[in-house]
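Researcher: Go.
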Amino acid sequence: MPDDFYRKPINNSFQPTQDPPYEATTLSGDLSWGLTADADFLVFDRARGLELLGPAPKNEFRFTIAEVFHDAPVFNPPTNELYFSQLAPGFLPQLAVNLSASPLSLSNKVADPPLYSGNGAWYHGGLIYYCVGGGNRSVLEQSGTVSRPGIYTLNATTGKSNVLLNNYFGYYFNSCDDITVDAKGDVWFTDNDYSWGNKVDEYAPVLGSASYRFRPSTGAVNIVEDTLKQPNGIAFSPDKKKLYLTDTAAISPEILQQYGMLGYMDYNFSSPHTVYAFDVSANGNTISGRRPIYSSKQWIPDGLKVAQNGYIVTGTGGGVDILDEDGTILVTVKTNYTAVNVNWTGKDFETLWIVGVGGVSEVTWNLPGPILY
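Model: Structure:
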């Protein structure tokens, strides 16, 4: 960018629609810059960006939803539905887009027992694995005990849910956030403080923020990373040799048990809003070599997925940023609402869906997502 430019200051709101977007930067004498405001896509790398968009890309707004955070989009192939969650106090259903309907339809579905505030989701082995962030004594698990943040599964065909894990050696998790499952069936997930800040967990955090690996076949739980302040998005590279994690500490809640759930989170752009890459050990059990590869140009890199070709796709508030393996930005898919998380649908996983605060979008392009197993 040339020297003669002006980017408006940040309002320090954790709602990015209240902050001036990157496109609102003014450039003296550059008449073309104004076109970015109404564009569906911003291309930063012409060759690779146009290739991933394909010859006829579409960015279509599909549904207006509540002006609260929505997360955990996940494709359920057996029913051809896209599930996602609404992160609001007392809201128990999952939302489901019927991809077979014409026109597309959106409905609420309540699991049995309910899954309260699913922050992250991953399809594996015929089940949806959820990172559930809600904790409330009025919501019970199948055993009759109080629902707590943890790892749950959902059979979307029967509607039955099951809790797999909700504590680390007797200490309940704070806010299980995002999740992925490796080829061995190990569940990798992040745990931060956001459920307290979102007023969906009435219990203040006890554990420090961290990322974990859980092996359902044995019940073993291992902490794999504890240096990120607010670990959030998580995804493997296609060859499983890298793990990507986001630190979104630019948004952080106040933790004051005596005052209860304040429902307020500070936004400080000078704190981390960063994607990190880690090397995965040869046996696939640990990670090392933490290195930052991308600091989002606005808001935070929230949900994070990796395409078939290794490109990183992350929701960053005013849109979705697509990065190469080293963190170089290639394209931004713009939204007119706060983009939080993404996932692919379709027989060949060629269609991207975006969910967030107030909206759901469908993107048709030339960047297929990971094959589910």
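Model: The first strand starts at residue 5 and ends at 6.
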